[in-house]
Amino acid sequence: VTGVQTCALPIFLNENRLVATKLTWKNPIKKDKDQNRTDAEGRKKREEKMPEDHWLDSMAEMFSNKLEAPRDVFTTSIFGLLMSAPSRVSEIQQLPLNCFHREKDRNGVMRRGLRFYGGKGYASDIKYMPTIFEDTAVEAARRLTELTKPGRELAKWYQDHPNEFYRHANCPNVSEDHPLTASQACEAVGISSHGGLPGLRAYFQNYPKILDILNRGTALTLRDLNDFCRSQLPDGFPWKHKELGIKWSKSLTCFRKHEFHIEWDASPILLWTPGKSTFTTDLNFIPGQENSIWKRHGYRNLDETEISMTSHQVRHFLNTVAQRGKLGELDIARWSGRADIRQNATYNHMTESELVDGAREIVGAGLLERVKANAPVTLADLEAVGDGIAHVTIYGFCVHDFSMVPCQKHRDCLNCTEQVCVKGDDEKLVRLKNVRDRTQVQLDKAVAASEDGVYGADRWTQHQLATLERVDQDRKSTRLNSSHP
After folding, report:
1. Where is pLDDT greater, at 90 or 368?
2. 395 and 411 in contact (C-beta within 8 Å)?
3. Whole-angstrom Cα distance, residue 270 to residue 154?
4. Is the Cβ–Cβ distance between 25 and 7 less than 8 Å?
5. pLDDT level of residue 314 (50, 70, 90 thresholds)
6. Higher pLDDT residue, 368 or 80?
7. How far is CA 306 from CA 41, 312, 318, 360, 440, in A?
8. Residue 251 gets which letter from DSSP?
9. Reduced to 3 states, what is the DSSP secondary structure of residue 480?
10. Are 77 and 92 in contact (CB under 8 A)?
């Protein structure tokens, strides 16, 4: 139920005296004033949602330089995938190892898309990438695949060998029940062998079962350590995202604990996956906290201040670029993984001049002048409305997107229940015949769009059918008189 409908409900109840006490309701959620403001402050707020050009250039340079530190590879690769399709960080980090889908479009051109599970109510989907971004996305996925190989091998071992300790490169080559020295046990869990018993006690301080063995002076075995490893597996293992059918061993972001740590080596026995903040904090400048990727590699703003951006600015950028490229609103919503097409407006940051130029291009100078002169349009104009759908009236037509609700009031005289017909008006009969012909054209278009699976086309098909049926009824009369023009 929308806010408008909720506001209308108490008015209806009050006016019809259906409640004993007068009801009042006010929407507690305040509208974002900055979104629709056209003054300098509103414009500044919208501009702040877009990334600076030199930020994108700097990230592209880092990606091109093939940085080797694991966290640098992670951040630049995730950023590269974000630039390939408007997505959220959480969606990117849910991608499977086999994250690409290839399919020919209607023109026979092979296209590449990312297999996504959208957030905020939008289900699974393929987000196709602009051709110019394909190479970047493929390389980004390749780097993540290479970076996560040790983690995925560890996850696969835990999945296939439940009763055996993982035999990593530094694991002592002994049987599961062979007594381990302190240095061997340290090597098995991935800590310095010089730590000895104190190092082991510190490592297992939160695992009483191992501490009890150490305190008794009994030697540890790989079987004891395997019990510890199993206790540390993530919830739901082997599934990383069970609802998506993705196991840890097939995830693009399956890492080992401490994989990105500057001073510590990655754990050979513990699995880990980055949270959303792992990526976002590497883009933000947070005083007193760790260095961002910009600071680590010497990138600053033009005024020498620290660069600080959010991952969502990339999403705003791609949506605005799509608007500038005249991608349809429904396609933008689908590409962005939105369940509600109205959310597109929040991500559209085209300038006022771009919007004006776009309006002029859509309307066309010739047609605009004829509208100003109140001149009639032709049947050819109606047939050339492009991908839209027309609402035909006796007076002309208006063009809608398929996703819009068909007009139920404005000049829809033929479908008005208050209309009455009086025989004998030849002029109105001619108009009705014209409306019939034009409506048939739009009905054919709506049926074709419905067969192609265009969202909203089925609703328009029913609307045009109802209009055509009413026209045929009214043609039996030669005069039409309406009390509701």
Report:
1. 90
2. yes
3. 8
4. yes
5. confident
6. 80
7. 23, 18, 24, 40, 61
8. B
9. strand
10. no
The predicted pLDDT at position 117 comes to 62
Query: How is 294-313 classified by DSSP, letter by letter?
Result: HHHTT-B-TTSPBP---THH
Expressed in angstroms, the distance from the first to the final Cα of the chain is 31
pLDDT of residue 296: 93
What the block records as the tokens of 398 is 């208006």
Distance CA 255, CA 151 (A): 5
Query: Among all chains, which residue has been given the structure tokens 């993984």?
Result: 337
- pLDDT at residue number 423: 47
Residue whose entry in the numeric block shows the structure tokens 């208006």: 398
* Residue 464 confidence (pLDDT): 80
Instruction: Categorize the per-residue pLDDT at 394 as very low, low, confident or very high, splitting at 50, 70 and 90.
Output: low
Angstrom distance (rounded) from CA 208 to CA 138: 46
Residue pLDDT, tens place only, 163-176? 999 999 999 999 99
Contacts of 172 (CB under 8 A, 6+ apart): 178, 180, 184, 187, 188, 222
3-state secondary structure 151-170: HHHHHHHHHHCCCCCCCCCC
- Cα Rg of the chain (Å, integer): 32
List helix spans (H) across 291-425.
Answer: 293-296, 312-324, 329-336, 352-363, 365-372, 379-383
Cis peptide bond N-terminal to 172, omega within 30: no
| Neighbour tally for 442: CB within 10 Å | 24
C-alpha count within 13 angstroms, C-beta hemisphere, residue 452: 11
Evaluate if residue 360 carries a pLDDT over 50.
no
pTM over the 0.85 mark: no
For residue 141, what pLDDT is reported?
Answer: 95
Residue 354's SS3 state is helix
Cross-strand partners of 272: 255
What mean pLDDT, rounded, does the chain reach?
77
Highest mean pLDDT among 35-39, 205-209, 352-356: 205-209
Answer whether 224's CB lies under 8 Å from 210's CB: yes
344: CB partners within 8 A, 6+ apart: 319, 323, 329, 332, 333, 336, 338
And the tokens for 351? 């300038």
Task: Determine phi and psi for 341, rounding to 5 degrees.
Answer: -65, -25
